[in-house]
Amino acid sequence: MSTTLLFCKSKVFTHATTNPADNIPGFLVITKSPEVSNKDSQISWIPENSLQPSQISWLNNQDMNFGKISSPTESTANLPSTTTNSNGATTIPLSILMNFNFQITISSLYSIECRPPSPNGWWYGSTILNLKDNNKIIQTLPILFFHDDICPSTISKKKELNKTFTPFINGGDMYYGAIDFKNSLAKLTDLQRTLVAPTVWLINPTLDDLRNFSPNTSAPDARVEGGDDTTSGSNSFFWNNVKWTVMSQIAEGTNKASSFISGLIRQHPVIKFIDQNKDKIPMDNPYVNSLLQNPKVQEIQEDFDSARIYLAKWALGVKNEAENYQIDESYRRLLMNELNEQDMAGAAAGGNDNFGFEIDMDFKFTDEELNNAIQRNFPLTRNKWDSFFDSQGRISITIDELKDYIVHGGIEINLNDDKNELRKEVWLFLLNVYPWDSSFDERSQIKETLNDSYLHLKTIAINKEYDDMIDATENKYWHDQIFRIEKDVKRNDRNIDIYEYNTIDGLPPSSANVNSDDDNTGESASDENEEGSDHWHIKNPHLLKLKDILITYNNFNPNLGYVQGMTDLLSPIYYIIRDESLTFWCFVNFMERMERNFLRDQSGIRDQMLTLTELCQLMLPKISKHLAKCDSSNLFFCFRMLLVWFKREFKFNDVISIWENFLTDYYCSQFQLFFILAILQKNSQPIIQNLNQFDQVIKYFNDLHDRMDWKDLMVRAELLFIKFKRIMDLSEHQKEQNVMLKGPDPSSSSSSGVSTGLERHRNANASAATNIDELNNESRRAETSNYPCDSKYLQLLLSRTVVIQKEGERTKEAVK
């Protein structure tokens, strides 16, 4: 079985003692066996004294190859033969690899520390490999020193960089040998630079690791509820207390370090001579020119300039992080003041009228809750996503850990990836097309099976209008459904690139055929969506696929059929997936949770509106009472937000980010209600101070389109949920205490909480009379209940199980 060579660097030393004669040269290599994942690739250090001359020459050639420098011309007759695997990658002979001094897997590393060399060559650049605490194989590893002055690949690359006057590489790092090693690791695993120690890079860190090394700190007046500030039981709080002390010391010492290095270089006799005589000796003096052109003098000057640039960039980075910290700190205080203001308002008004339950005026979020909600600086990257999978393609971390990245960082947007490949992979899991515990092979089989199933369903649906076996009434209904679908598809998101042009390839029409009458003439949204201009044929391939998917779904779920608004839900999914078959099954699974929004009797959307009303009364009593005075207590202005999940309120790309937060069900399956609650909370003051009529409220919320910051609202929604859960737990506790003191409340036995709520939501075929009776019973229970925990609607908000409510059987008399 062949082992692939992924990286090789020569002249990497271990310094056994302070005596240079005891330094041991060797090769640092990264290798990978075919049966393991990238994160289990092996890092090995092979000393030169354990190798044959031919093996050393072979590794030297590989060092030059990986440095992307042409190999030196030399005879290769006595070198080990270079073989490649089926992918064209170089394989390393086992006879070489078995001579390693130490060998570890990348996954066993916690971090690496890359220390740059002295600008004037007084010390070498080095790398320290820090193992995870739970690794018992090797306790300590030697520090690896990169002797760049004798490493052929590093010397060659430095020459190339000097030709372009670029002493830096990769966004500001001064180039030296360890940079090549770090960059190779970054291709195989998630490598994250820490901000409190810029030379330290975390290897495949958890989100908690990233938070612990984040520059954000807790607010001075934020305390941990129910515990001592100094004994909160987490290492993250230790870092929160010390990390910015370290950063401030670095910033303070930057000027000193710059002056120190400047002084050292200026003490060199040559530099001192030039400085002392630069005003006395003309610059056209041959002796001075000869001196300045001396390679040693130029090297000293280049080192000095490089050191100054490096320190300047370092200081700028520290300054930017300090400014970001100040912004985050102000934001923290703003959130705490605004969210706690609702408590003060509710308490001043004498508690909550609907529940008779008072919220503690001294409510505080813990430091960890605030930090987790606000810190959203670590998106899910391609390297991080790949690191989650083992060699069989199964996710090797908990699903909650994975979802934590999506909720608190989102999915990284790669500007060079216009097809959203990473987001596509993630959404196929979020929309339950692929099971979370599936392997590569299983997902491949699932994709093939689903594709065959979709093609079969599509064929039946597309040919249905030509079926002579269906009666006239059904045929008329079917043609009406197709007409509705085509009409909505024509108007769908025509400002988005893939939907904009009605050409056979979906691309902008060429100037040669703009005025022609052939089939490729382009028609854009501006001239197609005018009133009464629906009598044109769809040619855009993406719009045609949307149409086919909706027609197929209409036949797949005949009881529901097509309802206006479904195109709004399908469009973002197709935009991400870009595969007709997979998009269809994503949409099928998405509609499992969204079908209740389109029921003919509107019972599903009504239940959500009732839940939102109770939630607003509990969490935002002040604005709830004001909306009641404006005849808006039913929150009718939120109807469209719920129906198509904010598709009309935010920009297209923002909607995608919002949806993937909701689809995680990280906190609960109805988190969209807390997002609306955040909108209400954010806009409470302007509404209370300026609006007093129903039509004013409607117009105000309609005008919020493209004017809201979804990231801020998501932070608020998270904190509101945390607060809500705390209130529900507290009400349950108070209820239990009162029951012990006064005995059980007869009305509480009829209010059964989550299980009853789930049962009711899933009982899709209940009769209208039963629904009315249930509503009457709920009203009577609400009048006698004093605790939020007695509300089945509020209890259901704590569940992460998706609420599913199906349409009843369609009859010929059903109005669509």
TrEMBL record:
PANTHER family: SMALL G PROTEIN SIGNALING MODULATOR 2-RELATED, TBC1 DOMAIN FAMILY MEMBER GTPASE-ACTIVATING PROTEIN. One of its GO terms (cellular component) is late endosome. PROSITE patterns: TBC_RABGAP. Keywords: GTPase activation. Pfam families: RabGAP-TBC. This is Rab-GAP TBC domain-containing protein. It comes from Naumovozyma dairenensis (strain ATCC 10597 / BCRC 20456 / CBS 421 / NBRC 0211 / NRRL Y-12639) (Saccharomyces dairenensis). Residues 509-535, 738-785 are annotated as: Disordered. GO terms for biological process: regulation of vacuole fusion, non-autophagic; vesicle-mediated transport. GO terms for molecular function: GTPase activator activity. Residues 417-666 form the Rab-GAP TBC domain. It comes from the Eukaryota. Residues 516-531 have a biased composition (Acidic residues).
